[in-house]
Amino acid sequence: MKDITKKYTNGEVTIVWKPDICIHSAICFKGLGEVFHPQELPWITPEKSTTAKIVDQVKKCPSGALSYYMNRDSDSSEIQVDAETIVEPSPNGPLLIYGNVSVKNLEGVITKKNNVTAFCRCGASANKPFCDGSHKKVGFVG
Q1: Please, is 57 exposed, middle or buried when counting C-beta atoms within 10 Å of its C-beta (0-12, 13-18, 19+)?
Q2: Is the pLDDT of residue 80 over 60?
Q3: pLDDT for 93-103, tens place per residue?
Q4: Cα 99 from Cα 84, distance rounded (Å)
Q5: Which of 42-51, 67-76, 77-86, 117-126 has the lowest mean pLDDT?
Q6: 6-73 maps to CATH 3.30.70.20
């Protein structure tokens, strides 16, 4: 899998988008359509909203494909979320984990996630243990 990362900024906050892990939940553009509009290019225009609204919306991304950093903090290598961890099954979709999570793969490599992480429940993801949206293709119910 390619590791594509795209960045969009309004000067104060930078939105980081990783299209290869996006599950196309549509939460971003349903919640903040003036910034996220997938039918246009560029599809992310952070200059059209406030930093607070952008941060609030990006935190709702279930796959972790969208993240952000404050430009003033850009020298820090990792964004930390100080919150308790919450686990929530999404109807007919992934298991959503809210908070900081470290995931170890079969080779022992640890990936750190923050905000919201979506784990596959249907078994069809090509990016296990993470959800890649395959539950929609296979008609997963659960």
Answers
A1: buried
A2: no
A3: 999 888 778 88
A4: 6
A5: 77-86
A6: yes
Percent helix, strand, coil in the chain, to 5, is 20, 25, 55
Rounded CA separation 115/27 (Å) = 14
Domain spanning 86-138 has what CATH number? 3.40.5
Domain boundaries, the chain: 6-73, 86-138
d(C-alpha 16, C-alpha 5), whole Å: 7
Here the tokens at position 32 are: 């903040």
Looking at every residue in the chain, the average pLDDT score rounds to 86
**Residues 5/64, Cβ–Cβ less than 8 Å:** no
pLDDT score, position 75? 52
What SS3 state is found at 18? coil
pLDDT at 48 (0 to 100): 94
Q: How far is the C-alpha of 18 from the C-alpha of 16, rounded, in Å?
A: 7
User: Distance between CA atoms of 92 and 74, rounded to whole angstroms?
Assistant: 37
